[in-house]
Amino acid sequence: MSIIQQQSNATLTDNWRTINIDLYDPESSSCFDISTLQSSHKPVTDAEIQAISQQIRQLLRGGDVEGALRGALEFAPYNSSSAVKDLHLATVVEVLQSIKASEMTPLLKRISEGEGGVDILDVLMKYIYKGMAVYSSGKSTPNIRKSVSTSQSTGLSQMTGRLGGINESSGAAMSVLLSWHEKVIENAGLACIGRCMTDWRKV
Questions:
Q1: Scanning 83, 99, 107, 189, which has the fewest C-beta atoms within 10 Å of its C-beta?
Q2: Is 191 strand, coil or helix?
Q3: Alpha-helical segments (H) within 36-115
Q4: CA-to-CA distance for 192 and 185, rounded, in angstroms?
Q5: Among 139, 132, 69, residue whose Cα is nearest residue 98
Q6: Are residues 156 and 50 in contact, defined by beta-carbon separation less than 8 angstroms?
Q7: What is the pLDDT of residues 158-201, one digit of tens each?
Q8: Count of CB atoms within 10 A of residue 135's CB?
Q9: Global pTM?
């Protein structure tokens, strides 16, 4: 047997790849911990999200629209079920519809200049797009319809019904969301859309 044949046979039985080339690829997952892209929030139950909705509604009744909006966006139920997310979407949209058009720009400016303002506006943009997806279909999703019956039995917001097209037309709701979309871009810039689309944390 020649030296070349001996070398070839030895190579086939050895672990020829001794260097992990993925470590030198800047786009490889080996260069960073993928778990850091996942939300660290604990799942929220239906009862917990209903309690949060009631607290936000109390702020609205007290005239604290900024506190209500901040509370709704800061307690986004990541890692929760679709039903819980739909119920909180109803709460967020209720808050948005409760704010006058003349108050939108000053309110967003105060939020953006406050602590965590950029993150809060990014979450708001997520809910705007999710609300558009619900209203553009002209009908509610099964989870939205479920949240409607839940709100009726527990005395929660009527906005859950609006999401199902019960109390308000889809066109009017879309108009409100589009107005907020324009104002958020004015305050947070177009980069807000990019962050919203690429964030793994879904509302």
A1: 189
A2: helix
A3: 46-61, 65-74, 82-98, 101-113
A4: 7
A5: 69
A6: yes
A7: 444 444 444 455 777 788 999 999 999 999 999 999 999 988 88
A8: 24
A9: 0.70
